[in-house]
Amino acid sequence: MITEEALHQLFTSISEKSTMTFIGRCLSCGNKIKIDITRTTRGFGFEGGMLFDVTPDECFVKCIDCYQKWRKGS
Ligand SMILES: [Zn+2]
Fold first, then answer.
1. DSSP assignment, residue 74?
2. Ligand 1 centroid to 10 CA: how many Å?
3. Residue 45's closest CA among 58, 35, 32, 53?
4. How do residues 15-68 score in pLDDT, each as one tens digit?
5. In whole angstroms, what is the distance from residue 8 CA to residue 4 CA?
6. Which tops the pLDDT comparison, 49 or 1?
7. For the chain, how big is the Rg over CA atoms in Å?
8. If you measure from the C-alpha of residue 27 to the centroid of ligand 1, how many angstroms do you get, rounded to a whole number?
9. What are the DSSP calls for 25-43, one per residue?
10. Interval between CA 31 and ligand 1 midpoint (Å)
11. Which of 22, 25, 18 is nearest to 35 (CA)?
């Protein structure tokens, strides 16, 4: 999973707004998903899925369902 530090860097380098949108294919099920990440005073809010990593070419994401399964360890 992406670190808060990396997210801070992304927000600093990519977006001057408080929201960023990433589109990618879920690492587990392959569905195309869109994730909105909002920067708040308390940290980061994720909507639509979870961001694992970002490279200049690709976003590594998981949809909510797969992320919850992954967190449970199954
Ligand atoms: Zn999935």
1. -
2. 23
3. 35
4. 778 999 999 999 999 999 999 999 988 899 999 999 999 988 888 999 999 999
5. 6
6. 49
7. 12
8. 7
9. EBTTT--EEEEEEEEETTE
10. 6
11. 22
CA of 58 to the centre of ligand 1 (A): 16
| Distance between Cα 37 and ligand 1 center (Å) | 17
Q: What is the pTM of this model?
A: 0.82
Question: Identity (one letter) of the amino acid at 16?
Answer: E
3-state secondary structure of 61: strand
DSSP annotation of 59 reads E
Residue 33 CA to residue 31 CA, distance in Å, equals: 6
Q: End-to-end distance of the chain based on CA atoms, in angstroms?
A: 16
- Is the separation of the CB atoms in 64 and 52 below 8 Å? no
pLDDT score recorded for residue 74: 62
